[in-house]
Amino acid sequence: MPVGPTNVPQPGRTDPSLIRNFCIIAHIDHGKSTLADRMLQITGVVDARSMRAQYLDRMDIERERGITIKSQAVRLPFTPAPGTPAALLAEENKTEPTTYILNMIDTPGHVDFTYEVSRSLEACEGAVLLVDAAQGIEAQTLANLYLALNADLTIIPVLNKIDLPGAMPDKYAAELAHIIGCKPEDVLRVSAKTGEGVEALLSEIVAQIDPPVGVKDAPPRALIFDSVYDTYRGVVTYVRVVDGELKHRDRIKMMSTGAVHEMLEVGVISPEPMKSPSIGVGEVGYLITGVKDVRQSRVGDTVTSQVHGSDEPLGGYKHPQPMVYSGLFPIDGDDYPTLRDALDRLQLNDAALQYEPETSGALGFGFRCGFLGLLHMEIVRERLEREFDLDLISTAPNVVYRVVMDGADPDAPMPMVTNPSEFPNGKIAEIYEPVVRATILSPSDYIGVIMELCQTKRGNLQGMDYLSEDRVELRYTLPLAEIVFDFFDQLKSKTKGYASLDYEPTGEQAADLVKVDILLHGEAVDAFSAIVHRDNAYSYGVALAGKLKELIPRQQFEVPIQAAIGSRVIARESIRAIRKDVLAKCYGGDITRKRKLLEKQKEGKKRMKMVGRVEVPQEAFIAALKTGDAPSDKAKK
After folding, report:
1. Does pLDDT of 364 surpass 70?
2. Which residue from 45, 216, 397, 527 has the fewest beta carbons nearer than 10 Å?
3. What is the pLDDT of residues 262-291, one digit of tens each?
4. Does residue 306 sit in helix, strand or coil?
């Protein structure tokens, strides 16, 4: 069991003035999870025997990849040492040094999981902005900083990894101070690995971040900021209490759905679940109602009590818009109900995931899923395969297009295309594609290669600023479809890994886009269709036709593979027929006998070609749509 201080305030009876709610935000791989580890050790909630690296990263995928996918909340008791800012604050208020309760949320750093970060910020009053002292400010550092400023949080700037030989704390402290608007000496310096400066950081969190504000005697209101599904206990809901108190065995109401449940258990995470009689103003905890229906606990909903509850819900979250769409199909059609249940449960754990049923002539029944980015798509697929024992095929990712038909009523709704099979036939006036505002941070040596790459991806330069003598920020507008293929991969290779990328949607623009169909023996196969820019259509058609020629086994008749835009064929490959040696039984004799056998074979092949169907093996679909060679996995971030 974790060993902690004996004078820790108990949940539900904690004075809100002793509570500090904060989260850790940073770019990917800047040491958030390691800093959280040191905080767990210093506050004593995890003993040395139970400690492991990245303690709060619970999923196998997180530990294997070294990234945080799910934000994790944990309750830390902390008693400031004499002489620290927090202890001096207590002396000014003429109160005895006491134990504070720090509710910490460790957040992801990757751009695809920005929604996780935004939800965490809503449950906090402050944020620790962490920057690697060897790498400096990167694109996602700025993106998360702006999210925290928009949420009106207190920002504590911190430089991590000061123990590294290549660390330049003075240089990056000046950069950080310039962006936030503080003095370089106000930037704290820590080493999450060795623990240097972490206790001072905890003291600064107590001193600088405001305690939560709420009305203790008001009707209870709590904001749901996360939910998970437990096979045995049902839905576990994570909440931040704003007003009032939630007690064990209370009957609670979800304000958006009106559903009423009895609370079977209420408690806090420290860092394992700990039952308590209640949780009060400013506290972060969990509720278990035994409900198995995952739709009953929506992220962003307000929880209140059934009797004498509040009528005014808290401000929820803006629901995220999917950026990338892909089809997920079970290899075994009997797994379709299992996939549906798996997506239901995963959506509870990942509110940014969206899906709807889809049918493909080639792949059968499946789901059209919306993701925030390619890494998000890859993680969701891997979790479905691991946690629910499914074998899945995912189609090539694509974005949402808006199509304006020629002569259409301008007031009528325009068709939205999330799948190439939905692309309308007929005369098209204009096609609009989504555009993003990309921020690229890089050493100034690579400005030329970055500009060249962005121009080949149809980008427009919006501005450029020097953060320091040798670091530059470039702002581009780029079509989202160009980013979801191999943009990030090329950016990293051209800048030797030094550049970082962040992007956000900014609207749409008209573009010269076409639908490329792949025809096998004259029949279109919807799984291989794609919407691409006209300039890239030929190269896409040639590449996929060549790939399919290698993957589809030879038939008894010749099979043409064609890439076409409408009725115009732009690329072709042919799979040669298997020729049976009908002359093997002829040992000499008249040539007319041989010719007769060959003519008979020729007629048979001609008839077979007219009535025959090309059976594409499942392995060919998997290999052709495989995200390793197709553009989808190249943008692995």
Report:
1. yes
2. 216
3. 888 888 887 778 888 888 888 888 888 877
4. coil
**What is the distance between the alpha carbons of residues 230 and 345, in angstroms, rounded to a whole number?**
9
* Cα–Cα dist 366/335, whole Å: 10
The answer to whether 26 and 118 are in contact (CB under 8 A) is no
459 vs 477: CA distance, rounded Å? 6
Q: E-strand spans in 389-459?
A: 392-394, 401-405, 416-417, 428-443
pLDDT computed for residue 476 by the predictor? 92
Q: Is the Cβ–Cβ distance between 308 and 218 less than 8 Å?
A: no
Question: Distance (Å, rounded) from C-alpha 161 to C-alpha 164?
Answer: 6
CA 9 centroid distance within chain: 36
| DSSP conformational letter for 127 | E
Distance CA 112, CA 380 (A): 12
Taking CA atoms, 542 is separated from 213, 420, 522, 529, 575, in Å, by: 62, 18, 17, 13, 14
- pLDDT of 480 above 70: yes
**Parallel, antiparallel, or unpaired for β 19-26 and 126-132?**
parallel
Amino acid letter at 414?
M
User: Amino acid letter at 291?
Assistant: V
CB 83, CB 74: distance < 8 Å: no
**Strand stretches in 148-209, DSSP E:** 154-160, 188-189
Q: What whole-number distance in Å separates Cα of residue 146 and Cα of residue 148?
A: 5
Q: Single out the residue of 481, 476, 518 nearest to residue 400, CA to CA.
A: 481
Q: Is the pLDDT of residue 636 over 50?
A: no
Which residue reads 């800093």 in tokens?
A: 35
- Quote the CA–CA distance of 301 and 272 in Å, as a whole number: 24
Q: Over the stretch 89-145, which tens digit does the pLDDT of each residue have?
A: 666 655 555 788 888 877 776 666 777 777 778 788 888 888 888 888 877 778 788
Report the distance separating Cα 448 and Cα 464, nearest Å. Answer: 13
Distance CA 373, CA 324 (A): 6
Spatial separation of the C-alpha atoms in residues 240 and 314, rounded to whole Å: 11
Return d(Cα 558, Cα 134) in angstroms, integer: 60
Concatenating the DSSP letter of every residue in 336-359 gives HHHHHHHHHHHHHH-TT-EEEEEE
Q: What integer is the mean pLDDT of 26-40?
A: 81
β-pairing, 523-524 vs 500-511, is: unpaired
Q: How far is Cα 244 from Cα 499, in angstroms, rounded to an integer?
A: 47
CA distance 487 to 371: 18
Band of residue 47 on the pLDDT scale cut at 50, 70, 90: low
- Cα(515)–Cα(532) distance, rounded to whole angstroms? 6
| 24 vs 261: CA distance, rounded Å | 33
Provide the token pair at 278: 């209640």
Round to whole Å and give the CA distance between 259 and 478. Answer: 44
522 in helix, strand or coil?
coil
Digit-coded pLDDT (tens) for 559-579: 888 888 888 888 888 888 776
Cα separation, 507 vs 504, whole angstroms: 10
Predicted pLDDT of residue 4: 41
Residues 224, 206: Cα–Cα separation, whole Å: 25
